[in-house]
Amino acid sequence: MFSFENLIDLPLIWGAIIATAVLLYVLLDGFDLGLGALFPFAPSDKCRDKMMNSIAPFWDGNETWLVLGGGGLFAAFPLAYAIVMPAMYIPVILMLLCLIFRGVAFEFRFKSDKSRILWDYAFHFGSLGAAMMQGMILGGIVQGVTVDGRSFSGGAFDWLTAFSFMTGLGVVCGYVLLGATWLIMKTDGDTQIWARRVAKYISLFVVIFMGLVSLWVPYLDNDINLRWFGDYFYFLLPIPVITALLFGGLIYSLKKEKEVMPFVCSLLIFFMGFLGLAVSLWPYTVPYEVTIWDSASAPESLSLMLVGVVIMLPIILAYTAYCYYIFRGKVSDEHHY
Questions:
Q1: Measuring CA to CA, which residue among 240, 180, 170, 178 is closest to residue 205?
Q2: For the domain that residue 266 is a member of, what is the CATH number?
Q3: How far apart are CA 47 and CA 255, in angstroms?
Q4: What is the pTM of this model?
Q5: 2 in a domain, yes or no?
Q6: Number of structural domains, the chain?
Q7: Is residue 6 part of a domain?
Q8: What is the mean pLDDT of each run of 10 residues along the chain (337 residues)?
């Protein structure tokens, strides 16, 4: 009997939706987490006010994509959620606490005078902690988790390894690059000059960490190794080549004191890194144990949820684009929040 579920590959479509949500979260929330990591090192209080004003209209909306990614994983791939969450309970809880603490600090800073420095550091450490935990969650998933049947069977700290610590530092550096290039685009004067210096400095560390991850990941699993260095080598070669060209474009735009191009290059570098990881981990939702088809919900559930996503996702995208359009241009240090 013909049905909608038999017409299309619903698990594949939902995998693409969740991957897109995660990518948008990394790109959009990444720059304001990176800005928070830089916060106490800004040259002056006026610079910090500019930094806050540059993300005030966006920061909470950016986290929409985290909710969509996590909620989508729970609804569309419950087996993957049931395995990954117990494996990552500790870093996920720490990340959420950091995000909550950071959000509270953001609100309180605008209303406080004497305790402003306290909320400045709360915003900084909340942003830094959330970025570090996200990187360590990524590393813990990429290195694989211990699975017995349909359950996680490892220890509470299996995620805490040299590889996950390295990916944590790499994500922090990447977010700082996004934050610095965002400030180049959104600010002027001393703040922009300082942000350009930071971007030049941190880009070197991003190159180092991306190189280390790119060399390490193929040796985590034999299939990944064969994929990158076997028959698909020339097919996948454009990914590192384009990434290298984007780094060249970033350095060039920073030297020529461009304002928009550094941020665009940083976003595209993150996209290429995400694409490289997606190629490496395909088709697993739980590397290297459970595929997207093994962990998917029933076709009837996926098709019903897809109807809601088809309606709501364009609305969210349109609202996000409209928000960034309305609040385009440079920001000042005056309080408008």
A1: 170
A2: 1.20.1630
A3: 22
A4: 0.90
A5: no
A6: 1
A7: no
A8: 60 90 88 90 86 83 82 88 90 92 82 79 91 92 85 86 92 94 90 92 93 88 85 87 93 90 93 90 87 88 89 88 86 61
